[in-house]
Amino acid sequence: MSSEESPLLGHTISAAADEAAYEEELQDDVYNRFTKKQKRMIVAVVSWTALIPLFVSESFVPTVPAVAKEFNSTGEIINLAVTFSMASAAITSIIWATYSGFYGRRPIYLACLPCFCIGSLGVAWCNSVPSLMLWRVLQAAGTASGISVGAGVLGDIYKVEERGTAIGLFMGASLLGAAFAPLAGGIATHYASWRVMQYALFLAGVIALLLTFAYLPETSHPGTLGIDKLYERGELERGKFKWVWLNPFRSLALLKSPNLVLITFASIAGLMTDFTLLIPLPYTIGERYNIDNEALVGACFIALGLGNILGAPLAGRLSDKTVIKWRKRRGGEWVPEDRLRAGLPAFAILVPLSVLLFGFTAQYVDGTLGIVLNLLWLFMNGIGVDLSLSPVNTYLVDIGRSRSAELMAVQKATRNLVVGIATSGILPLINRLSISFTNALAAIIALLGFWCVASV
């Protein structure tokens, strides 16, 4: 039993439940319910749905100056729409994840995607800053299941030795948003209107809803859902539906685990470097190098996105190989924390160094050379953050088992709340002090994140 225990959940899940999960892990049948073709289709559907949250957040950033101008506001005020949407996604992701463990993955997707579609139309039609904030909150709530429930789906259908690669591909596909959403938002804003991007997001949501309805089966392991327990106890006729009020915030009790706290802070530290670079990009690169074309500013985001796309699948394969290597060394004993070893070099070097170099380059290097170097640092950050955090996400699925979506949601919610609040201070900090100081602070925080992962 020691080979499958994890200190993260040792005090939050009963020994009986953990033993049952361990026995389930050993049974190949539960992972062979779907053919390879079906699994590839499932990965494609959940990846498309996970692509949407990044398009919602990243496509909005290059439009901020245009939105501020239209509503006679400021960039700092409009950037609060990013903060509010991240807070909304953080809270609702816990709700969606909790109910996905009771009713299943598929019903949650079919419930949240219509919310996203309605929110996208609301943003497109809004006529004031308050209404913009309101509809962005609903829009973000509709996307909140994309990553956490999607990761849970992959945990349902892939064994531990395959899971890192699958989640790496899932994260890599979803991170296409980081590469192309800012460009799409910039092109829409420059050549038409920032509202056009919202109509495009509405269409993406409709496509995701249709794909989910047609190609995403229920993936939860048989007998593990809350509603299955009602059927087994005879409290509900099989096939019938009954609404049950759940406390979604019970999952926050998982934060009692020191390991989850460390992992969550590490995720916050890594993601903060991304937002420290991306949120002020229309100003740090746009104004600094006299680029006033929103499409060109949006194109600068591609460098970081390409790093994300390359880093996520690479990180997945490396983490799987690390698990297999250390399991073999221990004579078959599996220690979930072995997976985290794969991300430590990138967390120690690529992540803090990239954000630090960007700050000093943007402040002190002029002309074309400055632009080229900054694009290089953006790419370096993109690949570094994925190499660092992809093993962390897979680790949570490994030890979460049937509660993997909840674990991912708790981590993501806490991370997004903290990052959302912190991002509102990035532009003011740059304006009051300097970009080099701000980015140096982000680099120090990243090193603290490395220490957290190394301490698990």
The CATH architecture term is: Up-down Bundle
- So what's the overall shape? globular
Strand content bin:
under 5%
Question: CATH H level: which superfamily?
Answer: MFS general substrate transporter like domains
Number of strands: 0
Q: How far is the N terminus from the C terminus? A: 20 Å
Task: Count every helix, treating DSSP H or I runs of 4 or more residues as helices.
Answer: 21
Query: In the CATH scheme, what's the topology name?
Result: Growth Hormone, Chain: A
Structure description:
The chain is built from 21 helices and no strands. It starts with 14 loop residues before the first helix and ends with a helix. It has one domain (28-241, 251-455): Growth Hormone, Chain: A (Up-down Bundle). The longest helix has 36 residues, at 294-329. The relative contact order is 0.15. The chain is globular and about 65 Å long. The protein has helices spanning 15-26, 36-58, 64-70, 75-78, 80-103, 105-125, 129-143, 145-157, 160-174, 176-191, 194-215, 226-232, 258-278, 281-287, 294-329, 344-348, 350-364, 367-400, 404-423, 426-432, 435-455. α15 crosses α18, α17 (350-364) runs antiparallel to α18 and α17 runs antiparallel to α21 (435-455). It is mostly helical and 456 residues long.
